[in-house]
Amino acid sequence: RVPAANIFPVLTRFFPMGRVAAAGDGADADETAALRAKLEDAERRLNSTALELRAALAKIHHGRANSSSPPGSPARVGRSCPCGHEGTTCAQHAGASFWRSFVLAYMVRAGVAVFSRGVGLLRSDSPRDAARFEKLLGEKHVHYREEAVRLGMFLGAFSGGYHLVRCQLCNRLGFAPERAALTAGTAAGLSAVFLKRPKRRAFAGYLAARLAQSALHSARAAREARWIEREDSQARLARLAETNGDVVTNDVTGERSSPKATSLRGVLETFVGAHGDVLMFALSSAQVMYAYVMRPETLDPGFWNFIVRAGPIDKETLGAVRAQCNGSPVDLANLAQYAVPGKDPKAWTTGTRVPCIPCAIMHRDTGCVRCASHAFAASADTFRKCFPFYLSIHLVPFCVLNAAKALRNPFSTVTTATSATIRSTTFISAFVGSYMASICGLRWLRGGKEHRAAYYAAGIVAGSMLFIEKKSRRGELALYLLPRAADSLVATMAVKRLVPNVPHADLLLFALVSGGLMHYFENEPETLAGFLRSGIARFTRRPNAPPPRSASEAVFQVVAEETPEEDGGDEARPGTRARAARGRSARES
Known about the structure:
68% of the residues lie in helices and 1% in strands. By secondary structure, it is mostly helical. It is elongated, with a radius of gyration of 33 Å.
């Protein structure tokens, strides 16, 4: 077989015009130019013939490969797998997804830990320690390794398992990729077994809240689409003309309402539609901040320790408050015994019964005598302690997930991250200050007496500080805190034997929720929030690249990728289907 690229030199050797052009030393210049033009035209035609011959040979070779491939293989289906990957087998594509997702997750978790450690050393008494590896990356300072590996194994197994199961369903059972997403996502959700149980429960609760949000948006969009398709075009135009465009859509229910409504129901619907995220966050804060004081064993230990580090009250004082509210005597001279969060408050029998823990003990971390001064000092101290953490949260994940963008415009990246960090840190410091001020104020109103319900009320007041955050982040924070509050409430009810204890319920819930989210991601991605949609796409939609041969090659492949742009920030876009139906109706009319 002669390659198509070698046909042209063989033919030009016997082409007569070549010899004429070569032997045209004594010919006239016009004849030489004409012959050269003819030769160039012949070359173009030969090149076109060679390309057509090469394409025909490739088609014949591909047809032979299809005829010899077993049923269900990607070669028989077409030039690529139904799932969309080309140039690699299904197993290789799943392996590449596992590698990249593992490296990406490990880099994010380790980067946040190392960056926070470095900022902490720079703010310490000896800033030079930030340049010493034994201080920055010493063996006792890399405790994040286990959590980083667990997170990498979880996301890697989820991405690789999802692709592997979906490819098998498409190739062997003839499923469409969109139909296979539900089963493949449920199977991939079992990868949560790599996470510790408290983290798995927190993730399952958060994703369950996101799934409920997507289902609500999908139902609302379908209802709006049906309403628009049924509505007569002339009646709609007349109604819009009568109201002069004064028609708005409620963001929560999706129903049409007038902003001029003055009834109590209209006011409540308008408030919930505009600030439902703050209301949900405040109610969740009430349960979480109550459990923070009264039932710390119902919260994730890492989450509870974060609240303790961010707040101005130490573990000993919290234990004493818990014992006093449960009616046990309190030994104010020996507060160290109350530092154990899981101990039964009724176990303490020594000490005296007091109406409440004195404010002098509650304020001992700030050293302030007056309650107002203590609230302001607690806010300032929380801002100072939480600024490095929030800076690492806003800066490191973006730099890892969007390394190319960050390197193209580093000044804008740092400026945006710093601005978001200041806003988030201001919110958490105002949260702590308002919580402490509410506790002291409720004590003053009750004449120096303590009550358990005061910590619920203080949590609601502190949760209203969410107005400081940007609107696009309020829903994200509300959905982050809601599952933790629900988990604490369910754990409290389980202790009281009000709900049954189902073994491995968190793993089963995570698998089911993962299947639902992947179904919406493949079929109705506009119903997912922008942050969640881009995150799933970053880990599951892998480019058609060869599998990495080493960890370093996987790192370079991950850094070279870019996260697709998402419109609308962190908010979902549930009105896409309705807008499409509105456009069809307008075109028909």
